[in-house]
Amino acid sequence: MKKNSTLKLGLPKGSLQESTFKLFRKAGYHISVSHRSYYPSINDPEIEPMLIRAQEMARYVEYGVLDCGLTGYDWILEQNADVKEVAELNYAKEGLRPVRWVVAVPENSPIKKVEDLQGKRIATELVGFTKRFLRSRGVKAEIDFSWGATEVKPPYLADAIVELTETGTSLRANKLRIVETILESTTRFISNRKAWKDPWKRKKMENIVMLLRGALEAEERVGLKMNVPQKKLKRILSLLPAMHSPTVSTLTEEGWYDLDVVIEERLLRDLIPKLKDAGATGIVEYQLNKVIP
User: Fold this and answer.
1) How far apart are CA 145 and CA 126, in angstroms?
2) C-alpha closest to that of 51 among 35, 75, 62
3) How many CB atoms lie within 10 A of CB 23?
4) DSSP state, 6?
5) 163 - beta bridge partners?
6) Taking the model in full, what pTM does it have?
7) What pLDDT digit, counting tens, does each position of 106-118 carry?
8) pLDDT, tens only, 234-266
9) For residue 64, is pLDDT > 80?
10) Which three-class secondary structure state does DSSP give residue 104?
């Protein structure tokens, strides 16, 4: 390891901040930041974190102000940034799903498809990408940068908007109808290309990504332990859709086994009663921090 080596890491300020801090915490990195500060503390002396808006992250990573950072795929495309995409991390503000940029119009608008935007006014924060998308569809429209509250712009300030959504709830609440999804985006861990060629920095980034991916893998999985009598073991094993073969250990009591498995949490509601009926006892569900393949 190089002496006094540090990795300059950009963390997204704003909507992704809380979910990013939570993910890092599960990965073993405890981050704290005081109100109004842009320089968090982290329990790793080899990392220098800085809070940057996700919209600007790719540019600062490309220029080398930051060695690496986390931002949305949408903002990489918006800025046409020349960065190394190290990993896709499938999480967003509210869950583990991609976010969508959609064209939306008022419910009673005559606009039914993207081509109907010809000559119209569109409000969005994603100006550059929207222009390129419309150009690819042969549509000429006026694109206005929206400084916020984009959903309230139609119909008086814009004919349509291009807006980010996870669930569509806010659009429906503002009586807007989705015409088309133009981009799906997930969070990406990106690196400055020069920093990626530095062996120490690259290894440091790869380790961070491995732990973050492990934390994400654990988000929708749990551990399940149970005691199983020998005569019921084959039946209970047949009920378990495991990542790999479950761990089976003998207990001190003859004829009994301890069974340990990692499983998707969504399956447990139906699975646990079946395990109980099949003869499993002492069933314990426990949370996971990381699952490293």
Assistant:
1) 8
2) 35
3) 21
4) -
5) 102
6) 0.84
7) 999 999 999 999 9
8) 999 999 876 567 889 999 889 999 999 999 999
9) yes
10) strand
Residue 14 main-chain phi, psi, to 5 deg: 115, -135
155 prior amide bond cis, ω within 30: yes
- 246 secondary structure, DSSP code: P
In degrees, to the nearest 5, what angle opens at C-alpha 232 toward C-alphas 226 and 234?
95
| Token couple for 246 | 């479950």
For tokens 């920093």, name the residue.
Answer: 195
Q: Which of 216, 250, 213 is nearest to 233 (CA)?
A: 250
Question: Strand locations in 24-120, DSSP E?
Answer: 31-32, 41-42, 47-53, 68-72, 84-89, 99-106
3-state percent helix, strand, coil for the chain, nearest multiple of 5 = 35, 30, 35
Residues whose CB falls within 8 Å of the CB of residue 5, separated by 6 or more in sequence, listed in order: 46, 200, 201, 204
Q: What is the pLDDT of residues 119-176, one digit of tens each?
A: 999 999 999 999 999 999 999 999 999 988 899 899 999 999 999 987 778 889 889 9
Report the pLDDT value the prediction gives residue 149, as an integer from 0 to 100.
86
Residue 170 neighbours by CB distance under 10 Å: 15
What are the φ/ψ torsions at residue 138 (nearest 5 degrees)?
Answer: 70, 25
Instruction: Output DSSP code: residue 149.
Output: -
Distances (CA, A) of 288 to 93, 243, 252: 21, 14, 27
Q: Strand locations in the chain, DSSP E?
A: 7-13, 31-32, 41-42, 47-53, 68-72, 84-89, 99-106, 121-124, 142-145, 160-165, 176-185, 187-191, 221-229, 247-250, 256-264, 281-287
pLDDT at residue 244, as a whole number: 61
pLDDT of 182 above 60: yes
HSE (side-chain half, CA atoms, 13 Å) at 48: 9
